[in-house]
Amino acid sequence: MTGATLLLAVVVLVVLSFFGSSYRVSYLVEGSKKNLNSRLHYYGMFGLLCTGLPVLIVYFFWWLLIPFYFEASVVKFLISSLEVSPEENISLLLGQVNTIRDTLLSVNHSKASEVFNQNGIIDYEVMAAIYALANQPFEPETRPFLFQAGYDLWLLENRAYNTFHFALILMMICIISLYFLLVKPGFRARYHVENIVLGILIAAAGIAIITTVGIVVSMLFETFRFFDLHDWRDFFFGYTWAPNFHGDSEMSILPLLFGTFYISIFALFVAVPIGLFSAIYLAEYASNYTRSIAKPMLEVLAGIPTIVYGLFALVTFGPFLRDFFGDGGAFSVNWMSDARSVATAGTVMGMMLIPFVSSLSDDIINAVPQSLRDGSYGLGATQSETIRLVVIPAALPGIVGAILLAASRAIGETMIVVLGAGAIAKFSGNPLEAMTTITTRIVSQLTGDGDFNSPETLVAFALGLSLFLITLVLNVIALYVVRKYREQYE
User: Fold this and answer.
1) Any idea what the CATH number is for the domain that residue 459 is in?
2) Global pTM?
3) Which end of the chain has fewer surrounding CB within 10 Å, N or C?
4) Rounded to 5 degrees, what are φ and ψ at 250?
5) In order along the chain (490 residues), what is the average pLDDT of each group of 10 residues?
6) Residue 211, burial from CB neighbour count under 10 angstroms (0-12, 13-18, 19+)
């Protein structure tokens, strides 16, 4: 049974459960709704939830866990094969087996089942034809047992999925039959439907928490592996970033932290004044016509992909700064020799952050009650004094939150700093020099064919966990500042 057939069957059974439940209850009360405990559609909704929700839950866990079983079965086959030596890379062989399996899945079942002839020998002509149908390059030198493992995995998945799909349909039919037998007009359908929906809402809210915990736990385990292979004192208190996959690496987070904060603060110096002043103008001074044009145009900046900002920094803005401050520029000085620099990445990142500060601050300023402005005007204050002494203090907690959002976005930005800041980890106060950040190094360490058992690769997880803790501390500080100013204003 294909996925489309299963989806059609599930939709038909769910619709049947909804209308069948409603019709059965209506039939039992013989058209008189006075004897119903709940409105008629609640009975149908309860039948729909009881039929569809278990299917979604079971299918989710199946989709989540069954690949591990398939992968474990293939690994067991490869390890038990006499053609695999202990020093061979099982992960590489497993990738080749998965490629063969995916190729077989891309053609119809009858064609894929002809790969092995009656004697159990691979028919390379059939396999080459299947690869041609899948637009994949065929490599006849691939060892036969890998084709056997890929075919066995394909066959195992086909049988397992067909059995599971039929079991799902049978489970739904049993649930519908049981519900039709148990449903009565006095059943508290509305109460149970609302409880089920409440449980769904709680589960949806818990996904964010579970996701965060999962990310932190996964990074923690890899970070502990890194510190087993590399001295933690060098990581936290060293002054040099010089990873070397041949050994003797010096990997200190301090120069990366310096570059991250330097570029982020530079970006905030660009984004916060421009964003805040534009928000004040749009909220307090601009006419409705001007606001209707300026605000959407300003928010267009938030929709531009960061890679476009990075290319702008690399191709346009960086060379402009180099020509301006470099040798032969406007000042005839040689302060800047490369287009990549802190100023390049910080300025372009600040442009990207302007909508975050402006749009949020504008909404927050507009949320300040008009009665506060009227009271200030009644006491003789001018518009500028009202904005400075009444509106901004009232909106300050929200403005701090907007600046925090921009700061977190700046610290976690990757593409702009990869293309515009450079890759040099060092301590320098010159904004016209190249520098690197934590996110840039994470990308660099995880790019290529690095061994995930080496400290030079595992350091990316330690850097990621450090970045997570930094943003967490920033959030805690911002929450304290917001509460403090809110109490003073109230």
Assistant:
1) 1.10.3720.10
2) 0.69
3) C
4) -115, 110
5) 71 79 72 68 80 83 79 70 59 70 64 57 63 60 66 76 82 80 77 87 87 86 86 85 76 89 92 92 88 85 86 87 71 70 90 89 86 88 89 85 84 85 82 86 76 79 88 79 58
6) exposed
Could you tell me if 155 and 278 lie in one domain?
no
pLDDT digits (tens, 9 = 90+) for 181-224: 777 777 787 888 888 889 888 988 888 888 888 888 888 888 88
Instruction: List, in sequence order, the alpha helices (H) in 326-387.
Output: 342-366, 370-378, 383-386
- 113 vs 159: CA distance, rounded Å: 13
* Residue 131 CB burial class (10 angstroms; 0-12, 13-18, ≥19): buried
Out of 159, 187, 215, pick the residue that ends a domain: 187
First-residue to last-residue Cα distance in the chain: 64
Give DSSP secondary structure letters for 140-185.
TTS-HHHHHHHHHHHHHHHHHHHHHHHHHHHHHHHHHHHHHHH--T
Q: Would residue 275 count as lying in a domain?
A: yes
The pLDDT tens digits for 45-59 are: 888 888 888 888 888
Asked whether the beta carbons of 385 and 372 are under 8 A apart, the reply is: no
Report which of 419, 452, 457, 456 is spatially closest to residue 437, judged by C-alpha positions: 419
Q: Which range marks the domain in which residue 42 is found?
A: 3-187
Residue 348 sits in the same domain as residue 251: yes
